[in-house]
Amino acid sequence: MDTAPDAHDALARANAASRLAGGVAHDFNNALTSISAYAHLALSRLEPQDPVHADVREIVRAAEHAGRLVSQLMAFSQGEQAQVEVVDVNRSVRDVGRLLTVVLGEQVELDLRLANALPGVHVNLGALEQAVMQLALNARDAMSGGGRLVIESAVTDGRVLLVFADDGPGMDAETALHAVEPFFSTKGAVGLGLTTVNALCERLGGELELESAPGIGTTVRLHLPAVEPPPSPVAGRRPHAAGTVLMVEDEETVRTVVERLLSAEGYRVLVASSGEEALELAAAEPGPIDLLVSDVVLGGITGPELAAKLKTRRPALKTLLMSGYAGTPVGPVDDFLPKPFSPFELARRVRRILRP
């Protein structure tokens, strides 16, 4: 039997699904960019003691978390390597813990026992947070009648140790032996929960250790290689920015908020909703344009194409491209900023590019 047509159809469906996922992610990241930016702007106007301050802070955290999930899903669907960074494990656990208190429900008590002065771990932040969430949900499902989940962090033998201990019914030795196998479950459902967490540990050069006994509960230990975090930047008053920025974005909500953010930093901002409009603005501008900030996908000419056209007339022009799609654009680019991003990250990237 010739299976080539079936394989071709399957590949075509996979490619179509990947393109669809990319388009959805682009639109979703545009929405998250606006949500995060406006929440940051609102936060900057509130005193820390204001009761609304904590609520807006949670909006910011939720938008950041959603952005990491989209990035991780896109990297998975397109076979890309997710971005890694030095991560504060304790902070990640606390951030996810805010969601877990809701997800675990009233019958499961969450007990965080996090060590002080924990070194960092070189990992994709979204993957780590998903691992924490998955292990917590596994514990919740095991404790159908309620119980306690202890999440503990420590440093042992130069590694960061992350422990998840529940007081559920536990598993016998034979069941525990198969717990990390794909699609294995004691609850009648199938999934890849422990399998993906185990794969994450192996990619990092760490290991997952599972210990369980009937009537006692289950403990999962993640042993992760530790790294020293980069030095913190020296605090100080930021100089007021100066310069002219040509900002091009076809999504109105993103365009409006990015213009506000750049103007608040002290830049003179020329705003265009398309590449064609940007070319007209640049041609009519008598003075220098220091930086082009543009979305990659604009509906007409692309951001990289726009940058190339502008640089033929303005060779000193710097370029910062932003996009809600996965991947890094090719072209005359000084920096690339994936969506969603915070106002602080946008300002930092612009200052770095325009630094004398």
From TrEMBL:
The keyword Phosphoprotein applies. It comes from the Bacteria. This is histidine kinase. Its EC number is 2.7.13.3. GO terms for cellular component: plasma membrane. InterPro entries: CheY-like_superfamily, HATPase_C_sf, HATPase_dom, His_kinase_dom, HisK_dim/P_dom, HisK_dim/P_sf, Sig_transdc_His_kin-like_C, Sig_transdc_resp-reg_receiver. Residues 244-354 form the Response regulatory domain. Residues 23-228 form the Histidine kinase domain. It comes from Solirubrobacter phytolaccae. CDD domains: HisKA (cd00082), REC (cd00156).
